[in-house]
Amino acid sequence: QRERAWSQRYSPALTTDGHRFEVVANIAKVEEATSALKAGAEGVGLVRTEFLFLDREHAPSEEEQFECYKAMVQALEGLPMVLRTIDIGGDKPVDYLGLSEHDLSFLGLRGIRLGLARPDIIRTQLRAVYRAAAFGPIKLLFPMIATPNDFRRIRQIAESVRQEVDGPQLDLGVMIEVPAAVVMAPEIAKVADFFSVGTNDLTQYALAVDRTHPLLAKRADSLHPVVLRLISTATKAAHAEGKWVGVCGGLAADPLGAQILAGLGVDELSMPPALIPAVKEKIRKASLTDLQALATRAMAQDDAVAVRLIPPVV
Ligand code: PEP
Ligand code: MG
């Protein structure tokens, strides 16, 4: 029994009819790369690099960032690592950047907007990433992209830094977490290499509910059909261009959510390492047809409470 559990942990998540979903980890620290491997992750779907920038007096140097990203990708022993550039702002404030409360609001200079406004910060980070990419397979992911132009601008910066340090070409992906990016998904999918859906922000922006508001936050339920329909639209747009789609927001870690996302056709689910074995089990219990039927039924409801009443496929 114990041996079976052990071998299951390191096997891929296949549905009963043999369809494979990648199950990967969200991490922020080097030690978590090791926990991810132990939990049976097939790679890392999200490195939240802003954690390196929080609770300190100065931004980390290029060298410090390089050492950290290199150690992470080396700890993964050849498995792929999706590294997201800093996503400061919103619920992740940083004092030393001299940003006002207004800049830091959820509708302010978050994510890539800060990178575009302060190219020194993002260029230093990108230099460290392109250097670390010599030590293992890294893909770059950009947060808070709203339009194809946001992506083109950051891609241009990335390419110029790559040439500066003579780094390898990396796949460049877009976080799908602003509803505008879903509307423009057909155009964004033409220029980006992959999508990663951030269900936490996509939910708060689509439902206009602050994800940290003490009274309203519980209404920001990512199982809301609004969110599921947006994910379905973005996934179809990516696949139409032959691009893959991951989900790294909290919905991927929810047992019912993971089954619905699989049914919507996403390719990869990324979550905290501890939840990986349970999500793999949930995928293995179902056929792709069951999962698709579940997703269709969920999208047809008119609120998240109704979706939560649908029994998962067991
Ligand atoms: C998200 O928005 O779902 C996401 C994964 O990013 P974060 O939670 O770090 O904003
Ligand atoms: Mg986000």
UniProtKB/TrEMBL annotation:
<protein>
    <recommendedName>
        <fullName>phosphoenolpyruvate--protein phosphotransferase</fullName>
    </recommendedName>
</protein>
<comment type="similarity">
    <text>Belongs to the PEP-utilizing enzyme family.</text>
</comment>
